[in-house]
Amino acid sequence: xxxxxxxxxxxxxxxxxxxxxxxxxxxxxxxxxxxxxxxxxxxxxxxxxxxxxxxxxxxxxxxxxxxxxxxxxxxxxxxxxxxxxxxxxxxxxxxxxxxxxxxxxxxxxxxxxxxxxxxxxxxxxxxxxxxxxxxxxxxxxxxxxxxxxxxxxxxxxxxxxxxxxxxxxxxxxxxxxxxxxxxxxxxxxxxxxxxxxxxxxxxxxxxxxxxxxxxxxxxxxxxxxxxxxxxxxxxxxxxxxxxxxxxxxxxxxxxxxxxxxxxxxxxxxxxxxxxxxxxxxxxxxxxxxxxxxxxxxxxxxxxxxxxxxxxxxxxxxxxxxxxxxxxxxxxxxxxxxxxxxxxx
Length: 344
Ligand code: NCD
Ligand code: ZN
Fold this sequence. Notes:
The chain has helices at 22-30, 49-60, 83-90, 120-129, 149-164, 178-186, 197-201, 204-208, 225-235, 253-256, 271-281, 288-300, and strands at 3-7, 11-14, 35-38, 70-76, 95-100, 133-135, 170-172, 191-195, 242-244, 308-317, 322-324, 327-329, 337-342. The protein is α/β, with parallel strands linked by helices. It has one domain (3-342): TIM Barrel (Alpha-Beta Barrel), CATH 3.20.20. An eight-stranded parallel beta sheet has the order 2-3-4-5-6-7-8-9. A three-stranded antiparallel beta sheet has the order 1-10-13. A two-stranded antiparallel ribbon has the order 11-12. Helix 2 (49-60) links the parallel strand 3 (35-38) and strand 4 (70-76). Helix 3 runs parallel beside helix 4 (120-129) and helix 6 (178-186) runs parallel beside helix 9. It is globular and about 50 Å long. The model has no long low-confidence stretch (mean pLDDT 97). Bound molecules: N-carbamoyl-L-aspartate and zinc ion. Zinc ion (ZN) binds next to loops.
């Protein structure tokens, strides 16, 4: 196969940041996607509908001329999110979800939830209004090993949440484990998951063998090979429960190559090409369209895109660095050769 034409995909989880960074991240997001679910972990976080509306305007100001890409906004769940806040979201045309971060789990999550029980009023209102809950599914307890955080979250919290709020749509974001893939596969129609390109392409050996490679460091952290294989099986299955969410999360080169480097991989410079690489390696290029373009909108109850994109087999080398606003980042797969290229 030399070309591949699929329905234009969407990105159901990404970080655009704010200010100057938007001059890089918005055009990159609009490059192959039609819609993006925009993470709210700014400083301060996007906790109210009004803040989301203002952030959306700043994003749209950077949209390249002629682009139809749309930011779908997300509100950051806190201990104090009220039923009124949820009512404001329900009446918005462009806010599509609420994001749960456990306090302290990852980049800019200090305002996250300290105890899930404190959010039950908000979750009940979301269940009634049909607003999806996006979960950063990790525990942050000091006694839990960082490689076990996702599996323990499922046991300690997700099982109970599903029982308490069976009508609430939930997306277990950026799953990284066999346990995550199996739990979602066995769940009902209100449970789905996103998978990133880095978790399909790499495992922890890529990050740690032969030297510590900070550009592979993201959260949830890359796991061992058996988990990577389980994620590949999930992404290439036709269950409709797994879909594309890059978790593209830019940090400057300096903040990554640091004694205490930030978590996050930047992938929106080549998002669909990276996924194509992973699907081809799995012998499942024919499954890319469902994962990238169909199952996400189906889960969110939004229409599938009408337009298409075409990828061509045309090996190219990813740049070593790229701009991030006025600064510099190191993109995922920097310096590596990818087999597929988006045709403009
Ligand atoms: C994300 C970021 O940098 O905002 N980092 C990451 O490693 N994925 C936050 C997140 O999604 O956990
Ligand atoms: Zn993220």
